[in-house]
Design goal:
The complex is a heterodimer of chains A (292) and B (568). Chain A is mostly helical. In chain A, strand 1 and strand 2 form a beta hairpin. In chain A, helix 3 crosses helix 6. Chain A is built from twelve helices and three strands. Chain A has a three-stranded antiparallel β-sheet with strand order 1-2-3, with no helix packed on it. Chain B folds into two domains: 288 residues, FAD/NAD(P)-binding domain (3-Layer(bba) Sandwich); 156 residues. In chain B, 26% of the residues lie in helices and 17% in strands. A six-stranded antiparallel β-sheet of chain B has the order 5-13-14-15-12-18. In chain B, strand 8 and strand 9 form a beta hairpin. In chain B, helix 5 crosses helix 16. The mean pLDDT of chain B is 97. The chains are: A mainly alpha (292), B alpha/beta (568). Chains A and B meet through helix 4, helix 6, helix 7, helix 8 and helix 9 of A and helix 2, strand 12, helix 11, helix 12 and helix 13 of B.
């Protein structure tokens, strides 16, 4: 079932165009939608559909409500953009419409994007699914479609004008809602908003790498990787001390857990549902301070 | 005797067994429930294989290379839940157990310490512990040593013998140095090492099956840090596929059948010999492969499940289960986790992950403080030093713990990819009869076969070890220069159930006595002449070291016994 992509484009650095900066998508607004200019060094630019031309599932109102939701999950502040600017809502819509393109937009290709020095962006060529993956993902996407449309419709119905409310009022609405359709949606939407902010841009979010830039994460780095000097003697940047101490106070145990392989097990177990994860983490970590 | 074998599972154990059998002239069929993710498999040399993996965190959360939690659920519960009649308390995906050609080794952290001499004789040396089935291994370190040498060369292990502590070398003696020198040490790991030295510990480069220089046509690792849970995009990692399975396929004597869901080993009427292995394809169609030798290597949960699903008139409680030990002694490595926090970026992901190892907490420990914790002795394990976490991972855990929004976003900027350096103590897990895999009475996979149900709780020993050793980990992290805080999470103390790591063992323990063990030291089931277990199911105990090197070495040892007819 593998697409025969040939050997990995190595040995590095013989085939790496080192003079080329990692390319960023230049976005051109068009009447019919948006196209991105994909600048591949040495090749003519190729226009590929992104943004409004991607496969879609939600209608305009639902998408606007979803945009207003993800905006509260990762809000913009201090001039750093959040999930809205990263277009996380569009990445969620792309997942819900994944089977409207062939191959379905579930698994980005590999091994390299063009951000780490490769000449070609393999991530953009989504992988064909085999029968097993297709069965699993059709079920999952159908379930998610229901969760989102029910949740978004319930939110719009219970909080009229939700999408136009100021941020703090939207926070209040999301935090106090008892509507089971809304809470079920938030269980997955928070995780998806994170993926759409800090995941690979090929999934439709993290526009222009804004999400990564906002938190100082390098993103995917292959095939360039790091030099020995970058590993052993990296440039050190000071972090805002207040942020460090507040983060430690509020999130310390979870941050420690996130550095461990045990974290991936918990995440696999929760399968993207923040409510499940939350229940597990609270049960796990509630006693930690008493223990020490 | 026919020189043909059917191997169930293509991970670390299955690939190594297939390789050893093939190079001794055997014909091998490997059945794997996952699919192939490495273009060119079997057609090109391992250095020329492609990969569908990338440094793509989303793909990981979408289960790329994993069994699907809906189609192939596992169910779990704690011992306390089991005794109060709870059938299961969780259902779905189980941590990091992959399903792909090459198995979990495609995305393992590739750390390859050896077990120690003392690990093979814990019962004789230290005695029993209440509530645990502590046992000696029927083999010793010296039996495995030549296979350790062989596997280290074949997968390509980096390390530095000169930097290893004296006790490590005494407990795991090496005839020669590692095939390659270590990768550069990450900055975060180096900071933690300074703290550890201040409290008297001895960090040293962690042996790893990762190229630090070009070798066998595969390139050197360039320290991207996206290791554990990610497929290596540049093919620098020595996994089971590039090291064993692909070279074995290129002999022309090994074929791999993907998406083969094995559900039964069929035997002769009297049950003494296996005749065929039955599997279904993804559409449910039944296939049978006649077999004169069967090698089980589906990893402990699935090997136990297959033995239990293979029950028949001659083996009413499961194939080879006269001892009632099949599925019992399920062991997971619990991790005690520590982290230090810094007011500046320490780049924990900018290095081959956890580049340093510490052996000072391996133990065993005795004395009044230990007795006060209610155990006669306690054992710990290695510490892996200097880990971080990619952003979506951190974002989910932090939000799950204390919510999302502005504070969460601010914390992300200083989070597990930036200002945090973590480490993990890999705990020895003692075997318990009540920690077991059985067949779930109600839940099935998409083909209608019963799901594996895992009942598990850590033993008091693991909890005592977490309390006793967790304090020492915390001290090392608190001593780290320039850190402004440290935390320890003594996992076995705070978690009543499974710590979902990819390290597991037990369920078909080997031993000399058919009344208390499932297979002989040769891997052969005591009750069936031509069925061998080659994976970590055979481990009688589970010392606190990453297990893959030992899994591969033991599997090759077992396969060689099969091939030369010496297996008893």
């Amino acid at each position: 079932m593998t697409t025969d992509t040939g050997p990995i484009d190595l040995p590095w650095p013989a085939r790496l165009n080192r003079s080329a900066q990692p390319t960023r998508r230049g976005v051109l607004a068009g009447a019919a939608g948006t196209v991105a200019l994909l600048a591949v060094p040495g090749l003519p630019a190729v226009a590929v559909p992104v943004g409004r031309d991607r496969a879609r599932y939600l209608d305009e109102d639902e998408l606007a409500t979803l945009a207003a939701v993800v905006d509260r999950v990762v809000p913009a502040d201090d001039g750093t953009p959040g999930a809205l600017a990263a277009r996380a809502h569009e990445s969620i819509d792309a997942l819900l419409g994944a089977f409207r393109t062939d191959p379905p937009r579930i698994y980005a290709g590999g091994p390299f994007s063009d951000r780490g020095g490769a000449r070609r962006n393999d991530f953009e060529r989504f992988l064909p699914l085999d029968a097993y993956e297709r069965k699993a993902w059709k079920r999952r996407v159908r379930r998610l479609q229901k969760v989102y449309t029910r949740g978004l419709d319930a939110l719009a119905a219970s909080v009229p004008g939700f999408a136009d409310l100021p941020g703090p009022l939207r926070d209040l609405a999301l935090q106090t809602t008892q509507d089971p359709d809304v809470t079920a949606m938030m269980g997955v939407a928070v995780t998806h908003a994170f993926e759409g902010t800090w995941g690979a841009p090929e999934y439709g979010g993290n526009r222009d790498g804004l999400g990564w830039e906002g938190i100082g994460f390098d993103g995917d780095r292959q095939p360039r990787g790091y030099t020995d000097e970058e590993v052993t003697d990296p440039e050190i940047e000071m972090l805002p001390l207040l942020d460090v101490t507040s983060a430690l106070a509020a999130y310390g145990p979870a941050m420690a857990l996130a550095t461990s392989e045990a974290a991936m097990g918990l995440l696999a177990e929760a399968e993207g549902d923040l409510r499940v994860l939350s229940e597990r983490l609270r049960a796990l970590l509630v006693d930690v301070e008493d223990l020490l | 005797m026919s020189r043909e074998a059917v191997v169930v599972g293509s991970g670390a154990a299955g690939s190594a067994a297939a390789w050893e059998l093939a190079r001794r002239g055997w014909d091998v069929t490997v059945l794997e429930r996952g699919r192939n993710l490495r273009p060119g498999l079997g057609k090109r040399s391992s250095g020329r294989l492609g990969t569908e993996y990338g440094s793509d965190e989303v793909k990981g959360y979408r289960g790329f290379g994993f069994p699907d939690g809906d189609l192939e659920p596992y169910t779990t519960r704690t011992q306390a839940e089991a005794s109060s009649g709870v059938a299961r308390s969780a259902q779905g995906a189980l941590g990091q157990l992959g399903a792909a050609v090459g198995g979990t080794s495609l995305h393992y952290n590739a750390k390859t310490p050896r077990f120690w001499k003392q690990d093979f004789s814990l019962l004789s040396d230290r005695g029993p512990i209440d509530g645990a089935q502590v046992a000696d291994w029927p083999i010793g370190y010296d039996d495995l040593a030549p296979y350790y040498d062989l596997v280290e060369r074949q997968v390509g292990v980096q390390g530095d013998r000169a930097a290893m502590p004296a006790r490590t070398l005494e407990q795991s003696p090496r005839r020669r140095d590692f095939p390659m020198p270590p990768n550069p040490t990450g900055y975060a790991a180096d900071l933690l090492a300074q703290g550890a030295r201040l409290v008297g510990m001895e960090p040293y480069p962690y042996p790893a099956a990762v190229n630090s220089e070009p070798r066998k046509g595969r390139p050197a690792c360039n320290s991207c840090g996206m290791c554990s849970g990610f497929g290596c995009p540049i093919n620098a990692r020595g996994d089971a596929l590039v090291s064993f399975l692909n070279p074995a396929m290129r002999t022309g004597r090994v074929r791999v059948i993907e998406r083969a869901f094995v559900d039964r080993v069929e035997t002769t009427r009297n049950g003494r010999r296996a005749r065929a292995v039955r599997y279904r394809d993804v559409r449910g169609k039944v296939h049978r492969i006649p077999a004169s030798t069967v090698v089980l290597a589906g990893s402990p949960i699935n090997t136990a499940r297959l033995l239990l699903m293979s029950a028949n008139r001659a083996h009413p409680t499961g194939l080879g289960n006269r001892s009632d030990q099949v599925g019992r002694n399920m062991m997971f490595h619990n991790f005690t986790i520590a982290a230090a926090f810094f007011p500046f970026t320490v780049h924990p992901l900018r290095a081959q992950s956890t580049t340093l190892q510490i052996d000072d907490l391996v133990g065993p420990f005795t004395g009044p403080e230990v007795s006060a914790l209610g155990v006669p002795y306690l054992t710990g394990g290695i510490i892996q030093l200097g880990s971080g976490g990619p952003p979506i991972n951190g974002a989910q855990l932090m939000a799950g713990f204390a919510g999302y929004g502005a504070a969460h976003k601010a914390a992300m900027r200083v989070g597990p990819h930036a200002g945090v350096a973590g480490s993990q103590l890999v705990h020895q897990d003692l075997p318990q009869a009540e920690n077991r895999v059985d067949l779930d009475p109600d839940v099935t996979d998409f083909l209608g076969n019963p799901a594996a149900r895992i009942t598990y709780s850590p033993h008091r020993h693991e909890q005592a070890a977490a309390a006793y050793l967790g304090a020492q980990m915390l001290a090392a992290h608190q001593a780290t220069p320039e850190s402004i805080g440290a935390i320890v999470l003594p996992f076995p103390l705070i978690n009543a159930g499974i710590t979902y790591t990819a390290h597991l063992a037990g369920t078909a323990r080997m031993g000399d006595d058919p009344r208390t063990s499932v297979c002989a030291s040769s891997g052969r089931l005591h009750d069936v002449d031509n069925v061998f277990v080659a994976d970590a199911s055979t481990f009688p105990t589970f010392p606190g070291f990453n297990p893959t090197l030992t899994i591969m070495a033991n599997s090759i040892r077992i396969a060689r016994g099969i091939a030369d007819g010496s297996a008893v």
